[in-house]
Amino acid sequence: MAYIDENKINEIRNSVNIVDIIKEYVPLTSKGKNFFGVCPFHEDHAPSMSVSSDKQIYRCFSCGAAGNVFTFVKDYENVSFLEAVSIVARKAGILFEYTDVKKDVTSSKNATTYKVLNDASKFYQNNLFTKNGETALKYLKDRNFDLSFIKEFEFGLSTNNNSLYNFLNKKGYSDSDVEKARLISTEKYTHDIFVNRIMIPIHDLDGNVVGFTGRIYNQSDDAKYINSKESEVFQKGKILFNYHLAKNHIRNQHELIIVEGNMDALKLYASGIKNVVALMGTALTIDQVNVIKKLRTKVILMMDSDNAGKLGMYQNGNILKANGIDPFIVLLSGAKDPDEYINKFGIEKFQNLLKSPSSFLNYKLDYFKENLNLDDVSDLSKYIKLVLSDLKKEPDKILVEITLKKLSKDYNLDYENMMQEVELNNAKETKKIIKEEKQENPLKKLDEAVASILLAMMTDGKYIKSFIKQLGVFPEKWQRNLVNEIRYYYDKNKTINTADFITYLANKSDMQDIVTRIISNYGDIEITDELFNEYIKAEKRKILTAEIKEIKEKIKGEKDINKKIELGNELTRLKKEVDNNGDN
Question: Are residues 451 and 553 in the same domain?
């Protein structure tokens, strides 16, 4: 993230009311001191998000989302922190200029790998615009990729004779450096992995080059495409091809198109459909789904029209559905993939397909019929069982009712019997989900005394001074680290409040997550001096009790009589200290 003036950011935050900003995204209702609304960060059916005008923070009682105005906009719009500040500044009528840059990788443990990949990409690009690249460049232009598009996507060319290896070697990179970037192989002999191929860089979500796709253009090869092998910087399951260029178009159009192959995404982008990404494998991963969820937009799945593509559509649709996203489906009739469809039928006909996608449920109803003869009683039974099994996971009761009535009418089946079976299975599934949620709620593990002490310290400097005087230190590392951040912030600014402190932690995501948990669980506690002191006493008793237990264990195992006496004296001192702290 580029350097920004913290005082300027605080000025922007203080110039707006978080209630007014969030109201632009979510309807809020006033109840007492706070405002309440449906949380946009999970499937919320009852208002579970509280927004405090006094504290300038929000918190969701259900999913644990919490933060200040910038974190809300950042997560809602799925933008960087600086972009969120810019959005809030624009709403406040404040001029805020910054240069948003790619995630800084120069200081990461894989900094050299990123540099190798970046230099390789530039080398490939240069090759394409030399005499050696004339045939490849003509091939791309014949496929309707114009020069501006070729440069935007940083297309390049790999040649033969280990030209990349020699180039990188001259730049001072070791064989190990280049091999870690998955650009050479040292098996049997050292050689370039990509030879005589058009090179398409693969970027991570932040826009850094992490790998390549190499495509044949003037030769025959069983492997039309070769992708970089996974490395420390390139894990296919964490990347959506073209996301770094598509994300702003997705936000502006409120629609995301997911295709199967890289060339399909490139073809759509070159044809003016820029809100498109491609999978880096056949099935969506949870990391990819989490990226998609943050976009909070309409999702259209468009896999290839072969059997594998149809299966992928079904499986990926179910993955999205299970994670709270109800996708739409576009089927490509008469062509294998989007690239072929546009070449055969033109972009206008393709755009018409996008205007009328089918629901995922309708797709499944047709998909379940594949390879079944519904005139056969046995196959019809299989089909109905597949549909009923699927409907038990459908939360939309009206959709379930409409579907069952259609089945009843089309196949002369008893509606009540089918509904009864779906409701029975649905009840079992709901109980299972509730049980799993109860077992996996990490937000309840925070200690109330510790959390409340830290929350008070983030609210008022007097509690920082009181903590130092009465307790001084916490036993756990993360607690000590957070206290250090709080003390540093207060010493630097001579004041502190939770909303501005959250902004200060923008570059320290782990620490910000802890603060978010604290606010989410205990943000409604009104801290008074008396309550703060009680929490301090409780924490001190807990620390002393742990020390007493430890000394007792030591006494049991100690054979030296003099050391036993020393430990006994220390035990007596600690017990008196516990008594002085009000332990009865």
Answer: yes
